[in-house]
TrEMBL record:
It holds the Pfam family 7tm_1. The chain crosses the membrane at residues 6-35, 47-66, 86-105, 125-145. GO terms for molecular function: G protein-coupled receptor activity. The keyword Transmembrane helix applies. One of its GO terms (biological process) is G protein-coupled receptor signaling pathway. Residues 25-180 form the G-protein coupled receptors family 1 profile domain. This is Melatonin receptor type 1C-like. GO terms for cellular component: plasma membrane. It comes from Branchiostoma floridae. Keywords: Cell membrane, G-protein coupled receptor, Membrane, Receptor, Transducer, Transmembrane, Transmembrane helix. It is a multi-pass membrane protein. It is found in: Cell membrane.
């Protein structure tokens, strides 16, 4: 199935607009959290960290997708291939962990408000943000210990992925960010 060139360029323009809006919007969130005294609170640290992870994802991955749409025969160099296959699921995981932390924070603030002060201590917020980054980073590092064995370019997906050979079947484990 081929896509018409007009539709392809419309998708590219939409993706470029998405990239610009995402980076600018997340930078504005970080700027607002740092410059506005009423927002400069410990409990907003996960929101700032979420914005950082979103900026990293948007800066690293959608530009590669645009490049693949414009140049279908282009393949990433090996180093970028390994970087992309590792950072895609890690940054998705970091974003999901941050959203979970924010949801738990809201839950305790509304339902268990008597326990709420303990959750907003500096130690608790630092641990929350550190775990939101460390859990995905460590969870997806195993296939990248020996990237020569595990990372390859998926012709079907047109991007790099970490794969695992099991009983002559190839399972794409990190192409989407989940272990199948």
């Amino acid at each position: 199935m081929t896509i018409s060139p007009v539709l392809q360029y419309v998708v590219v323009v939409i993706m470029i607009i998405f990239i610009a809006q995402s980076i600018i919007g997340n930078l504005m969130v970080i700027l607002a959290l740092t410059l506005c005294p009423s927002l400069r609170k410990r409990e907003n640290a996960p929101l700032a960290s979420l914005s950082v992870s979103d900026i990293l994802f948007t800066a690293l991955h959608p530009p590669m997708w645009v490049n693949v749409l414009l140049n279908p025969e282009f393949r990433l160099p090996w180093g970028l291939c390994v970087l992309q296959s590792y950072t895609a699921p890690v940054l998705w995981g970091v974003s999901l962990c941050h959203m979970g932390c924010i949801a738990v924070y809201r839950y305790f603030r509304v339902i268990h408000f008597h326990r709420f002060p303990a959750m907003t201590s500096t130690k608790a917020v630092c641990a929350e943000v550190a775990l939101a980054w460390l859990v995905p980073v460590l969870a997806f590092i195993a296939p990248h210990v020996h990237p020569v064995d595990n990372v390859s370019y998926s012709q079907k997906l047109k991007r790099c992925a970490a794969v695992r050979m099991i009983n002559t079947q190839v399972k794409t484990t990190l192409a989407v960010g989940f272990d199948l």
